[in-house]
TrEMBL record:
Name by which UniProt lists this protein: Cytochrome P450
InterPro entries documented for this protein: Cyt_P450, Cyt_P450_B, Cyt_P450_CS, Cyt_P450_sf
Sections of the chain in a coiled coil: none
Signal peptide: none
Organism: Nannocystis pusilla
Annotated keywords: Heme, Iron, Metal-binding, Monooxygenase, Oxidoreductase
Length: 410
């Protein structure tokens, strides 16, 4: 029986439509009444308070590898070898020594300074997307704009053959969705064809680039990444490209959509950003703090060594969800957590993770979303919400599938 730190009548249901639309009253109740909650559905705990989340995110007894070093079951390995191969070499599942080695090789390629060289390419792709949108009328921010540019950016940076964007997006969705604990077997199996198609595209690209290296090409740079004659192997390359697609595309789609939504809900903040477009990056960070697009569990960790925290026993193998969306609305983090202020500067911005597991694609996501936000507002001096957003049923994200806005270039 799982232990909890609050009243048993509290129920956590991140698929409740009312929760999806606005989870923050629920988060407040849990922070106050059950800050460490026994979530029976996944046989683990959810941690809601800022101080607890930040303490546990640094705790070495919690690890990112859900297999706890035991590897994937033989039946999964036999049924889905492509999936197992990419997951076993994922940065989140590598043992610490391998993780440190790969991060050392590739981190310089994903730093803000190196990625800045790609800004003209990013800008041109977003310019082309906006040019195809109507000058006046109603558009769906998610489908017509936010979802259309990130995969094109990744594909351009990797010089993936044109026409592969749908497969790349499906690949990213499949990798994200199958990380979620407790996914029904039939749903898991349904994602596997997309994984195989995506990996085939990436393998072909790697083979081509080994034969014909290209200048200003991220895939060539990944293949060439070297330190004391140590290079990435093909399995590591495949996993890194998969991680790049996730960190630089799917995350960017939701970040762009949510930031435009919050700016339209807060006209005073939209006016500030129009007056000073350099606030775009702060607006993105404030949106991640104020209305993150995670469905509710938060960062998944797994108990490697049993321990007791705040009177609750954590047992080996159990998942622990560090609920960062709740933590960043905690008054212990900022004094006015329910105020949306794009001028806010915090001492840290842990929206993309912490320490050695800080998201490798964070700088790319910020570069893309910042450019998209600035260009979208420059293109449309007039933007207004038409109706409330329509949310999807993604296992990880509070994904907005429909955000209709009326726009005008006048």
């Amino acid at each position: 029986m799982l232990e909890t730190s609050g009243p048993s009548e509290l129920k956590f249901d991140p698929f409740d439509p009312a929760f999806v639309e606005d989870p923050y009253p629920t988060y407040r109740r849990f922070r106050e009444q059950a800050p460490i909650y026994a979530w029976e559905q996944v046989k683990g705990h959810v941690v809601f308070r800022y101080r607890d989340v930040m303490a546990l995110i640094r705790d070495p007894r919690l690890v990112t590898d859900g297999t706890l070093g035991s590897g994937f079951p033989d039946e999964l390995r036999a049924a889905y070898p492509d999936y197992v191969a990419i997951r076993e070499n994922d940065l989140f599942m590598m043992p610490p020594s391998a993780h440190a080695r790969v991060r050392k090789l590739v981190t310089p390629l994903f730093g803000p300074r190196n990625l800045e060289a790609h800004r003209p390419r990013v800008t041109q792709i977003i310019t082309d997307v906006l040019a195809a949108l109507p000058e006046d009328g109603v558009i769906n921010v998610f489908r017509d704009f936010a979802q259309t540019y990130p995969v094109r950016v990744i594909a351009a940076m990797l010089n993936i053959p044109s026409g592969s964007e749908p497969e790349f997006l499906a690949f990213a969705d499949a990798l994200i969705a199958t990380i979620f604990p407790g996914l029904p077997p039939e749903q898991f199996a349904g994602y596997m064809p997309a994984v195989s198609r995506g990996l085939d595209i990436v393998r072909a690209c790697i083979a081509d680039r080994r034969e014909r290296p290209m200048a200003d090409d991220l895939m060539t740079h990944l293949i060439s990444a070297c330190d004391d004659a140590d290079r990435l192997n093909d399995a590591e390359l495949l996993s890194l490209v998969g991680g790049l697609i996730i960190g630089g595309s799917d995350t960017t789609v939701h970040l762009t959509t949510y930031t435009i939504l919050e700016l339209l809900r807060h006209p005073d903040q939209l006016a500030l950003l129009r007056a000073d477009p350099s606030l775009a990056r702060l607006a993105l960070d404030e949106t991640l703090r104020y209305n993150a697009f995670g469905r509710g569990g938060g960062l998944a960790r797994f108990v490697d060594q049993p321990f007791t925290f705040e009177g609750v026993e954590f047992h080996r193998g159990q998942p622990v969800f560090l609920n960062t969306p709740s933590a960043f609305r905690d008054p212990e983090f900022v004094s006015d957590p329910d105020v949306y202020d794009i001028r806010r500067r915090t001492n840290s911005s842990p929206w993309f993770g912490h320490g050695p597991h800080f998201c490798l694609g964070a700088s790319l996501a910020r570069l893309e979303a910042e450019t998209a936000l600035q260009q979208f507002l420059a293109r449309y001096p007039t933007i207004e919400l038409v109706s409330k957003p329509v949310y999807g049923n993604h296992p990880i994200f509070r994904d907005i599938l429909d955000l209709p806005v009326r726009v005008s270039t006048k």
